[in-house]
Write a structure and sequence with these properties.
This protein is of the alpha+beta class and about 260 residues long. The chain has one domain: CNF1/YfiH-like putative cysteine hydrolases, CATH 3.60.140. The strands form four sheets. It has a six-stranded mixed β-sheet. The protein has a five-stranded antiparallel β-sheet with strand order 1-2-3-16-8, with helices on one face. A three-stranded antiparallel β-sheet has the order 12-14-13.
Length: about 260
Amino acid sequence: MQNLVTQMRIREVKNGMIIESALLNQYQGLRFGMSTRLGGVSPEPLGMNLSFRVHDDPANVIENRRRLFARLGMNLDSAAIPGQCHSDHVEVVSASGEYDQTDALITSTLNLPLVVSVADCMAVVLFDPTCNVLGTIHAGWRGTASSIVAQSLVRMRDTFGVSVREVVAYLSPSAGPCCYEVGPEVAAKFQSNYVQKRGGSLFLDLKNANADQLLAAGLQKDNIDISPQCTICNPDLFHSFRRDGERSGRMMAVASLVNDRRT
């Protein structure tokens, strides 16, 4: 694995923070942002929780989502939301709604926000600025082991004629190899260079595993932006299920093809 990790850019906004990719920010036809645990109305430790699947008042979740989408300049009612069942299924979408049994969404439709919900798993954004095609992927260890990012690239190519060399990618904050301890049954699903052994324990490197899949698929190194942040060891900024268990909220990464770009 080459050293692809680049510093992400954090933009401070009213009542909270949104994480952006300096690479994705270069493209006028794309809008992207990822929430943190800051700026929400849910009682602590949930804070900016964006999931209905945790022990939170649905009214709080709705308000948190409204705040996030308003800050991103996107329409919440227009979003496409995957069910995220840790599958390797990729869905091509052209309308808003919930898409069960899928962990990756691909579109060429303008103003259709694609959502990934995370709390240690990785959100991956793929964008071809030439064909104007967007993909968002939920990549935990199961999806990574199933090469879901590579499968998403194949689907983008076969459906829309995307040239992989033109694709740019952002890999979000996620559980890092500093903290992401796994059992031997999970470690066995990965090549040994993605598993670190320390003190008798095994730690998985999701970031490098997904980045290498992108490189092997044909992405150029300079077209890959990887957040260096670990969700587990940054409790002030990120939700983490591994760290907090049932007390953990969920964040969202949201990307949309747009006609123009707000500053």
